[in-house]
C-alpha cells in the first residue's frame, strides 16, 4: 500500500490532469520517471552492501514520504505540473531505491529456511492484493477525495512504514542466515547480545 502501483499505472493520467495536455507528452514524462527509477535501483544495488539494508530502506521510504508531501502540496496549492512531476519522480526513485530493490532480499534473509517458501508466498499474496486494491480504488479516490487527501493517505502510510522499519527491522548486512534466524528466535536480540 505504498502507492507505487497508482504512480506506475496512472502517471500519464495524473500528469495530464495537472496540465500536460498532450497524451504523448504525458507518456514521455512517465518514461523519464521510470528510467530514473531504474537508475535508483542500480544505485541501491551499488551502495547496499556499504550502507546496509536498513539505512537503504529508510532512505527510500523517507524519500517516498517526502514525495507524497510534495504531491499533497502540489494538489492543495494547484501548483504547476512541474511540482506534480517532481513528486512522481521522487516517489518512484524512493520506492525503487528502497522497497523496489530490497524488500524481497531483506525478507528472504529474515525468514527461517523452513518458513521461507510460506513467508515468500504470504508476502507475494499480500503484495498482489494491495496492488489490486490500489489499482481499483485509486482513480475513484482521486476523483472523490482529491489529490491532496489521496496522496495524504499514501503519505501517512509511508510514515507508518518508516516507523515500522525504524523500530522493528534489524540490520542484516554481513550476518549469516543462522544468526538472523537466531535474532528472531531470541525475540529481537542478536546472538552475541544474549551471550553478554
Structure in a nutshell:
By secondary structure, the chain is mainly alpha-helical. 82% of the residues lie in helices and 0% in strands.
Output the keywords.
Growth Hormone, Chain: A; 0% strand; mainly alpha; 9 helices; 196 residues
Helix and strand arrangement:
Elements: H1 4-17, H2 23-51, H3 53-76, H4 81-97, H5 99-110, H6 116-145, H7 147-168, H8 177-185, H9 191-194
CATH architecture, please?
A: Up-down Bundle
- Strand fraction band? under 5%
User: Helix-strand pattern, N to C?
Assistant: HHHHHHHHH
How many runs of DSSP E, i.e. beta strands? 0
Q: What fraction, in percent, of the residue positions are helical?
A: over 70%
* End-to-end Cα distance: 40 Å
Total helical elements: 9
Largest sheet: none
Structural shape: elongated
Tally of discrete structural domains: 1
Structure description:
The chain has a single domain, classed as MFS general substrate transporter like domains (Growth Hormone, Chain: A, Up-down Bundle). Helices cover 82% and strands 0% of the residues. It has helices at residues 4-17, 23-51, 53-76, 81-97, 99-110, 116-145, 147-168, 177-185, 191-194. Helix 2 packs antiparallel against helix 3 (53-76) and helix 3 runs antiparallel to helix 5 (99-110). The radius of gyration is 18 Å and the shape is elongated.
Amino acid at each position: 500500500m505504498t502507492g507505487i502501483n497508482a504512480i506506475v499505472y496512472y502517471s500519464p493520467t495524473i500528469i495530464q490532469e495537472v496540465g500536460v495536455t498532450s497524451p504523448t507528452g504525458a507518456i514521455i514524462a512517465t518514461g523519464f520517471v521510470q528510467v530514473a527509477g531504474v537508475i535508483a535501483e542500480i544505485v541501491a544495488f551499488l551502495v547496499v552492501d556499504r550502507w546496509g539494508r536498513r539505512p537503504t530502506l529508510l532512505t527510500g521510504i523517507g524519500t517516498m514520504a517526502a514525495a507524497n508531501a510534495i504531491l499533497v502540496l502540489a494538489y492543495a496549492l494547484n501548483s504547476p505540473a512541474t511540482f506534480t512531476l517532481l513528486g512522481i519522480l521522487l516517489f518512484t526513485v524512493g520506492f525503487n531505491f528502497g522497497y523496489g530493490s530490497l524488500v524481497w532480499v531483506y525478507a528472504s534473509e529474515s525468514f527461517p529456511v523452513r518458513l521461507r517458501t510460506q513467508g515468500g508466498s504470504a508476502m507475494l499474496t499480500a503484495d498482489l492484493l494491495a496492488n489490486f486494491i490500489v489499482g481499483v480504488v485509486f482513480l475513484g479516490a482521486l476523483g472523490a477525495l482529491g489529490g491532496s487527501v489521496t496522496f495524504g493517505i499514501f503519505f501517512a502510510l509511508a510514515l507508518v512504514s518508516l516507523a515500522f522499519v525504524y523500530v522493528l527491522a534489524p540490520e542484516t548486512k554481513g550476518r549469516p542466515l543462522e544468526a538472523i534466524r537466531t535474532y528472531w528466535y531470541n525475540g529481537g536480540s542478536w546472538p552475541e547480545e544474549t551471550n553478554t
